[in-house]
Model the fold of this input.
Amino acid sequence: MIYNTFGIPATADHYIEVTDRQQLLDLIAQGTLSSAPFFVLGGGSNVVFTGHYHGTILHLENKGIHLLSTDSTSGTLLVEAAAGEQWDAFVQHSINNSWHGAENLAAIPGTVGAAPVQNVGAYGLEAKDIIHSVRAIHTATGQEKVFTNAECQFGYRSSIFKQSLQGQYIVWSVTFRLSSTFTPQVNYKALSDALSAAGLVHPTARQLADIVASLRWSKLPRPDETGSAGSFFKNPIVTPQHYEQLKTHHPDIVAYPVADGYKLAAGWLIEHAGWKGRTLGRCGVYEKQALVLVNLGGCSGSEVIALADAITADVKRLYGVTLEKEAIII
Ligand SMILES: Cc1cc2nc3c(=O)[nH]c(=O)nc-3n(C[C@H](O)[C@H](O)[C@H](O)COP(=O)(O)OP(=O)(O)OC[C@H]3O[C@@H](n4cnc5c(N)ncnc54)[C@H](O)[C@@H]3O)c2cc1C
Done:
């Protein structure tokens, strides 16, 4: 069985599926997580394995999605989902129960547990916008801590679980703040264009999620057809001065103003560096979206890294911009 969407075969000293809390606490008490390196694996949709993992892979498989509370005045709903649930199963379950707010994040691969770690985002929404709190277990003591939204220190595809607390907590469940009222969030241009093209002026929650999913798969490879880790690189942020320089030489460069400068579309940089559709070994740059590296069949982790390094070097040479990997290399 291959537990990563890139489809790269990999082995580890130990592989443990964790289905209940006591099992995890027993593993911690027995020293399983302190005696050797460990890695928490969700759906493997943002990781690249580069060889044998000398340690323990913990694969979370705990399940359950529950409505915790309803505020009948404000319509606010608190919904808790187990880390081992598939993210899209949570989104679809919410839509089916008229719990609203997650529609724009439909069809993102991976698990609920990884969503706060990565602060997943798409079509104008990020997980941080709907996360109320995160229940996590300390990997050394087994103690549980509930992190408020603010304590998670969410950033662009980042959180405290990937930064200062990396490796220290296992996300066990996530509580979302949803709503009994559906308010479509259609500020993202590609999404509003697609809704207009489909004649959906007032989409239902189901229609919005379906349009999001079809937009997604028109641009990204489906994991069951082509191996990838989604966007391989982050969109880099540059200073206003650097952006102005780039804009002078490349008037069509794609960028969005952010608090500390400009966020450049990494896909544009990679495409204009001539990499879109190109291949190196058995790994390639997806022909519909240059931000995505794909497995052309039998690709190894080191081939992925070789391609990523070649792209990074060209983008640095041409634009003076350092690309940072979004995918996690193990
Ligand atoms: C085709 C495709 C499209 C994608 N589109 C998007 C997109 O639109 N937006 C987006 O943001 N991402 C996207 N991604 C990336 C991916 O879906 C997300 O990063 C997702 O959150 C990864 O979930 P996972 O369960 O597979 O995590 P994994 O890849 O298994 O792990 C990712 C990281 O989270 C950690 N982790 C996982 N579970 C836990 C846990 N319970 N506790 C602590 N740490 C944990 C892992 O240790 C690792 O560091 C896409 C990926 C693919 C393949």
Q: What stands out?
A: The mean pLDDT is 96. The longest helix spans residues 301-319. Residues 12-60 form a domain with the Uridine Diphospho-n-acetylenolpyruvylglucosamine Reductase; domain 2 fold (CATH 3.30.43.10).
